[in-house]
Structure to design on (326 residues):
């Protein structure tokens, strides 16, 4: 980064009901990158601005108020990247028609337009997702698919890039996206330095699930199966065959398998594999146990079974995962 390094203008959109972390998370990443560069080279890399349709104090969903500049004061020709945070997608007040019109007009002029979480709904309203691949918060994937049938909405990635449109998954994924943009602009080293400074992962696997597998399984089922899954999470090393699980539930194998699949949405074997995978990720990121030992502790038959599970579920090998997160 030399003295002639370009300063990129990042415009973060604010509106009443915006999710605070969707806005300030990415903003902190860019600010930290700029501050780090200025301290080491004397050059600020980013010029950050928060703007809204009318300007003034904007109330976030937490009650925190953020002071925004009105759009009319923003030099549109200078904008490099627009960040659209999420808010309450079912609240019509979020979709101010003036904001939608502004995005429709100015989004295509910017090098990058990025949505965080359900900010993707605003991009959809502005017509910016037509024909694009995109993602959003896991709980609103199906809603966005129905709302924007001209787009391909993906439910696995932490973020998606298609043309000048970037979209990220739920809330904290905006930080992942911002780190990637810093890397794209100024290289891996600076992005890694920022991640270390903020004490966050530099990069999660691109198709990592957006919330804990064991928690999501428990949240999707009834009390009886929630208790069973909680017990299973503490006994992953043991035999957790469908026969064992059915017996613990007091059901026949056939009845248990049918009811479990209806309640959880997965076969018992698939659910247990996901829980073992989740625990293996934790062990790989937090310690240096040999892969053979990780496989044993998590209940995988052998190291090769562990490798196959990682490739199928996360599209990375256990060793690659450890290198990224340990």
């Amino acid at each position: 980064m030399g003295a002639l390094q370009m300063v990129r203008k990042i415009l973060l959109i604010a509106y009443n009901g915006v999710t605070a972390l969707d806005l300030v998370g990415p903003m902190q990443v860019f600010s930290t990158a700029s501050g780090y560069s200025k301290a080491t080279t004397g050059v600020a890399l980013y010029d950050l601005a928060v703007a809204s349709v009318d300007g003034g104090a904007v109330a976030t969903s937490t009650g925190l108020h953020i002071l925004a500049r009105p759009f009319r004061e923003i030099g549109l020709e200078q904008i490099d990247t627009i960040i659209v945070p999420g808010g309450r997608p079912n609240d019509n007040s979020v979709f101010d028609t003036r904001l939608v019109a502004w995005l429709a007009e100015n989004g295509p002029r910017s090098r990058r337009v990025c949505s965080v979480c359900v900010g993707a709904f605003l991009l959809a309203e502005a017509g910016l997702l037509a024909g694009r691949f995109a993602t959003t918060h896991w709980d609103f994937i199906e809603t966005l698919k129905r709302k924007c049938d001209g787009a391909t909405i993906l439910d696995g990635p932490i973020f998606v890039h298609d043309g000048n449109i970037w979209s990220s998954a739920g809330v904290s994924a905006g930080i992942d996206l911002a780190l990637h943009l810093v890397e794209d602009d100024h290289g891996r080293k600076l992005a890694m330095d920022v991640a270390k400074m903020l004490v966050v992962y530099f990069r999660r696997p691109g198709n990592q699930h957006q919330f804990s597998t064991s928690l999501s399984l428990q949240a999707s089922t009834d009390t009886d199966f929630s208790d069973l899954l909680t017990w299973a999470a503490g006994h992953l090393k043991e035999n957790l065959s469908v026969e064992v699980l059915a017996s613990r539930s007091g059901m026949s194998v056939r009845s248990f398998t049918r009811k479990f699949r209806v309640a959880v949405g997965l076969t018992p074997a698939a659910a247990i594999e996901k829980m073992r995978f989740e625990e293996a990720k934790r062990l790989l990121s937090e310690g240096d146990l040999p892969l053979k030992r990780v496989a044993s502790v998590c209940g995988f038959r052998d190291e090769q079974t562990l490798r196959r599970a990682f490739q199928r579920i996360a599209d990375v090998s256990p060793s690659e995962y450890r290198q990224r997160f340990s």
In short: The chain has 14 helices and ten strands. The domain at 213-325 is CATH 1.10.10.60 (Arc Repressor Mutant, subunit A). The two ends are 28 Å apart (CA to CA). The CA atoms of residues 29 and 198 lie 8 Å apart.
